[in-house]
Amino acid sequence: MKLPKLTRLELQIMEVLWTRGPCAIREIQEAFPKRGRPAYSTIQTTVYRLEDKKTLRRVKKISHAHIFEASISRGEAQGRLIDEMLSLLGDRLQPVMAHLIESRKLTLEDIRNAEKALLALEEEDRKEQKP
User: Fold this and answer.
1) Which of 3, 8, 32, 107 has CB atoms 3.0–4.6 Å from 37's, for a disulfide?
2) What is the DSSP string of the chain?
3) Percent of the chain topping pLDDT 70
4) CB 17 within 8 A of CB 72
């Protein structure tokens, strides 16, 4: 299943659920900083949209409050964002890597970890190809 696109507010709501676990709409709203906090009705509408997108789900009801939890992982959502960004760049990774290096956000340790992950994937592929 292809993950739906998520807006900035939708991602912020998902971040609350990933960090805090299951929450009621009021709890989600109160997780936002007081200054610039979206209205309760805005959060409620956005939560229902996320429910329609199947990125979160109702897990129970306490009195009149529905409790929601994330139904996709942070990694799945991040992967979707990265795929979108790469498609904007013509699926070229070079500009991203160059920027990360120039901005000093990519470390030698990151490169070493990526190399280990690639070698592990290569080994896995080799094992799958053997009869």
Assistant:
1) 32
2) -PPPP--HHHHHHHHHHHHH-SEEHHHHHHTS-STTPPPHHHHHHHHHHHHHTTSEEEEEEETTEEEEEESS-HHHHHHHHHHHHHHHTTT--HHHHHHHHHTT-S-HHHHHHHHHHHHHHHHHHHHHH--
3) 98
4) no
CA dist 55 and 26 (Å) reads: 19
pLDDT at 71 over 60: yes
The predicted-structure confidence for 9-32, as pLDDT tens digits, reads as follows 999 999 999 999 999 999 999 999
pLDDT higher than 80, residue 95: yes
Cα–Cα distance between 11 and 16 in angstroms, integer? 9
Asked if 69 and 59 touch (Cβ cutoff 8 Å), the reply is yes
Domains and CATH numbers, the chain: 1-91 (1.10.10.10), 93-131 (no CATH)
Look at strands 56-62 and 23-24 and give their pairing.
unpaired
Residue type, 67: I
